[in-house]
Structure to design on (85 residues):
């Protein structure tokens, strides 16, 4: 089973990576830009594995670049409290 198959595991994984980035001193601006790049990569290269990812993928596909940045920032906020460390 892939980490992408389960929404809760995916959020925990992202939360852990966010913790790592913050602990290494990355600024919020850099984290938000990285989240946008990850979202773009996933939208173009990874088939959604669950309903939540499908919704995000569909939203991403119709969003402007500014809206995609907003989606990425909201995902960062969502996972901030989902780390398993």
């Amino acid at each position: 089973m892939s980490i992408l198959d389960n929404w809760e595991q995916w959020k925990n994984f992202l939360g852990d990576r966010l913790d790592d980035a913050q602990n290494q001193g990355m600024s919020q601006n850099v984290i938000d830009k990285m989240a946008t790049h990850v979202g773009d990569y996933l939208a173009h290269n990874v088939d959604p594995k669950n309903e939540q990812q499908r919704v995000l993928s569909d939203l991403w596909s119709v969003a402007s670049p500014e809206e995609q940045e907003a989606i990425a920032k909201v995902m960062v906020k969502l996972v901030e409290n989902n780390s398993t460390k």
